[in-house]
Amino acid sequence: MRWINCCCLMLFASVSCAADWIELSIDRSEFVYQQTGLPFRPWGFNYDHDETGRLIEDYWDTEWEKIVGDLQEMKALGANTVRIHLQVAKFMKGPNELHMDSLRRLHDFVREADKLDLYVNVTGLGCYHRQDVPEWYDRLDEEERWAAQATFWVGIAEELRSEPAVFCFNLMNEPVVPGGKRTDRDWLGPPFADKHFVQFITLDQAGRQRTAIARAWIDRLVQAICSVDERHLITVGLVDWSLDRPGLTSGFVPNQACGSLDFISVHCYPEAEKMEDASATVRGFQMGKPIVVEETFPLKCRSQQLVDFIEEHRDFVSGWLSFYWGKPIDELQKSNDIGERILWDWLKRFPHIKHLSDNN
């Protein structure tokens, strides 16, 4: 039986929401509800795959009840925002054409979230499962690939431009500009748990500044979205090694490449013995725009350490998203798997730490 408070279910069933639009404040330093001007702080989950590793498009056509149940559970766990990850293979027939059935199903998802007063972070251009990536997509050169990516976003934005329950469009999860030239023509970074979350936006630096390439790519896709939708907020999911400092960097230096974005999204997994380093990293993404820690989880630290980390940074981080993978919390509690026990320990705290993200 799914872990949801009965009163919550009654409330969900009785409410059909028409979400208020989320926009930036006048000084562009925080998110606010358009009608009231009150602050909005995204708090919730990445819903990137289920407990078996399936991506959302793998089951949303045949197991819609599971989608609805998972949304209800995330709401019961205190979420106001859900981040979904859309795959190129499921949305594009070719470089100039989208699958209309996938667009309609995406719209269904947003409307279902709206019923629960959940906002949706729509992250696009995923190639998480290498075996699903279309051959035609990998054959494109840089200009052709960027054009296809713009087509993807125009289609998504056209479909959802009237939906206030869309919190934002996220151009891509963890894009990287590699240095030099990649001779293998592989657009994907190394896998993590059999999924390729990092993606290259070019294969050849061709004498250009990496930050200039990142900025041009962001500007191209922002302009594409704004050609049909000037209202929804736009961001991109940055790896924590995007700052301009010695060592590994993605090329997406915030204050050099992200000027046309509405807010900054960073992914941060603090390490138990390096909490101060994680703090310095998050603070390094400040550039006068709201910051959302769009991915976080006690992967390398204890749950209580992450709670303390969130509390420490509540004054300048505008929102936090962790992970929900489709397995009810009461089932996680019974599991003997160490990973599921860690997830249970974190999720059981989640409803009780939401106040750390609130303004009052």
Describe the structure.
42% of the residues are buried. Strand 5 (92-94) and strand 6 (97-98) form a beta hairpin. This protein has helices spanning 6-14, 56-59, 64-76, 88-91, 100-115, 135-139, 142-160, 210-226, 254-257, 275-284, 303-312, 329-334, 338-353, and strands spanning 22-24, 31-33, 43-46, 81-87, 92-94, 97-98, 119-126, 166-173, 175-176, 199-200, 233-238, 264-267, 291-295, 319-323. The radius of gyration is 19 Å and the shape is globular. The longest helix is centred in the middle third of the chain and has 19 residues, at 142-160. Helices cover 37% and strands 17% of the residues. The protein has 360 residues and is α/β, with parallel strands linked by helices. The strands form 4 sheets. The chain has an 8-stranded parallel barrel with strand order 3-4-7-8-11-12-13-14, surrounded by 4 helices. A two-stranded antiparallel sheet has the order 1-2. It has a two-stranded antiparallel sheet with strand order 5-6. Mean pLDDT is 93; it is low at 1-16. The protein has 13 helices and 14 strands.
